[in-house]
Specification:
By secondary structure, the chain is an alpha+beta fold. It is built from twelve helices and 22 strands. 42% of the residues lie in helices and 13% in strands. A hairpin with a 6-residue loop joins strand 7 and strand 8. Belongs to the krueppel C2H2-type zinc-finger protein family. This is Zinc finger protein 544. May be involved in transcriptional regulation.
């Protein structure tokens, strides 16, 4: 028998599903998947498990023990499998492929969730409003919209969150941690989603298309903002003067005209500005950079407003339609 086991022969067969195993103890553990037997109980919360190893892993949720550390960014994990999954955020490895559309994923769970976009299956239903979800995690998050429960608290500023993932992302605003690095230009990001969006600046991928004018965008958020140029929607209103804006960023900039706040400082002369765009224009006074060129005489200017004034010397003071593409 020892010789047979050495050769990899599987001697022990499951009487339920006929799966074969090389060792009797492995067969016994497997059989619990059929019997539902969970003999190992957590003494802290009474949750039961089929294996002692699973119980040991679970106990770390109570102790906070995280013995598995990422060698790239030093992030720690309670489970070895979670560390292996995390390492793919650094390597970009996506071993799980959808057989329907060939999209690849870093985690098998993400692939399973994605498959439901093809089947339309939403097996998880809210008992309060009957809304259905493709993933149990999405249902749990949704339930907090009914309860308002935010059990996860930041130890730095006491802000509360509905999900642990939200708390982890928030903590990076305190630590400045940016563990996700672009393999093209080495720029670092606090979130994988921001890194994925950034990568499109290298690939020029613009998967989000405007249904009105067919203009394409790399982000859904940019598409949503663009759509307001068609609808005229201005959902962001100033509480001081009631002026409305299409973008939240424009409202924030406008509010500084009321508060006098100038958070953007020139690193050369320490002059402060209310907007980043004004700071960028100012920096050209130090660099001598002149991006705006007159189409009549080819004279160049550091600022678009100076170019517009100059164009009147050609038109005799009349308004001139500028054909120069403004800086984005």
């Amino acid at each position: 028998m020892a010789h047979k086991l050495h050769n990899g022969e599987k001697l022990f067969e499951c009487t339920v599903c006929n799966k074969e195993f090389s060792h009797a103890n492995v067969l016994r553990r497997h059989f619990q998947t059929h019997s539902g037997d969970k003999p190992f109980e957590c003494t802290l919360c009474n949750k039961k498990f089929a294996r002692t190893s699973t119980l040991h892993n679970h106990l770390r949720t109570h102790t906070g023990d995280e013995p598995f550390e990422c060698t790239v960014c030093s992030k720690k994990f309670s489970l070895d499998c979670n560390l292996r999954t995390h390492l793919r955020t650094h390597t970009g490895d996506r071993p799980f492929e959808c057989t329907l559309c060939n999209k690849k994923f870093a985690q098998n769970g993400h692939l399973r969730s994605h498959l439901q976009t093809h089947t339309g299956d939403k097996p998880f239903e809210c008992t309060l409003c009957n809304k259905k979800f493709a993933q149990n995690g999405h249902l749990r998050s949704h339930l907090q919209t009914h309860t308002g429960d935010k059990p996860f608290e930041c130890t730095v500023c006491n802000k509360e969150f509905a999900q642990t993932s939200q708390l982890r992302r928030h903590l990076r605003t305190h630590t400045g941690d940016k563990p996700f690095e672009c393999t093209v230009c080495n720029k670092k990001f606090a979130e994988t989603s921001t890194l994925r969006v950034h990568l499109r600046t290298h690939t020029e991928d613009k998967p989000f298309e405007c249904s009105v004018c067919n203009k394409k965008f790399s982000r859904t958020s940019t598409l949503r903002i663009h759509l307001r140029t068609h609808t005229g929607d201005k959902p962001f209103e100033c509480t001081v003067c009631n002026k409305k804006f299409a973008e939240n960023g424009h409202l924030r900039s406008h509010l500084r005209t009321h508060t006098g706040d100038k958070p953007f400082e020139c690193t050369v002369c320490n002059k402060k500005f209310a907007r980043t765009s004004t700071l960028h224009n100012h920096l050209r006074t130090h660099t001598g950079d002149k991006l705006f060129e007159c189409t009549v005489c080819n004279k160049k200017f550091a600022q678009n407003s100076t170019l517009r004034s100059h164009l009147r010397t050609h038109t005799g003071g009349k308004s001139f339609e500028c054909t120069v593409q403004q800086e984005i």
